[in-house]
Task: structure prediction
Amino acid sequence: MPILHQMQVSGNCYKVRLAARQSGVAITLRDYGLHDGSTRKPAYLAKNPNGRVPMLEFEDGRVLPESGAILWYLSEGTPLAPADRWARAEALQWMFFEQYSHEPYIAVARFWLAFAPPEALQQKRHLVPEWHAKGNAALGVMETHLAKHEWFAGGRYSIADIALYGYTHCAADGGFDLQPYPAVRAWLQRVAAEPGHIPLAETW
Amino acid sequence: MPILHQMQVSGNCYKVRLAARQSGVAITLRDYGLHDGSTRKPAYLAKNPNGRVPMLEFEDGRVLPESGAILWYLSEGTPLAPADRWARAEALQWMFFEQYSHEPYIAVARFWLAFAPPEALQQKRHLVPEWHAKGNAALGVMETHLAKHEWFAGGRYSIADIALYGYTHCAADGGFDLQPYPAVRAWLQRVAAEPGHIPLAETW
Result:
């Protein structure tokens, strides 16, 4: 059974747990501490030189880092995968958008405001306004899309929705207010109502 | 013929020009200024609310932003596409790595050091050490991979190599020294020797 090297509170790791559950792939979880630097130690770096979670490790020793790549791999051949060439392009458009224009502000604000030790947060507090401005810009881009579309790619629920749900649904942890984004809030409810949905806190 | 909305000096746009050329797809270029804010004006935002280049616009009006999504779309069915499920996962792993752990430091350092007005650079100069530290970490991850592999995904030249070549080959513009990365330098030469390769400056 593949092992998901993960941190439970990480939205990037949650995306993989959610996609695995909804695509019927059994995985084992191996947890790492948020603050103990265990993913930057030699044993971990030997598997993933980039020192990050999530990483999926297969029984034959192959490893796959990067939540977007793991979502793609796990979903191939399942209803979570985008169904045709254009839907694949749309899904990747939003998955790259999430990692470049959304996660670095919304997930990072959440990490520092909700999980970092207070003395570490003090070193970063001057960055909060920029995180909020750029994170709200990303939420605005999502709102524009969702005002006209039910889902992000191919007209149906897919890994693109999972990728964006990961940190959008808990954006309040980073000090974001979703009140100005009614289409985003309605979409969050649609995602949470999908069969097999699990909350971020659920483990096994 | 699809229109690539682009800036000529952008490595993200160069990736698309290179992949289009090597996959035999004819595209028209529409150029935007680096500093005139033209991709943040209403006419552009109506097509891409995220206000970025590259964006590929098709004759039927569909638009596709995000270089990684465009590379995926253009290469489907060509030898530039990763060939099987595992190669697709490897390619996306490196393409997401590039956008999250490489481009925000190596491309951003290049933009500010090589293309920004001097007075604007002054506002950012305190960030250069962090860009260099994190960019060098990304180059180290590439070096570790390339010390044992000729290419990034599926054992052959693909869009994953194009995605990483875009800003690695011009990293010196951002003050990076590639001397400590011999495997990266050898790979850059292999990429540049591929049939149909064009340099960043080439236009049509």
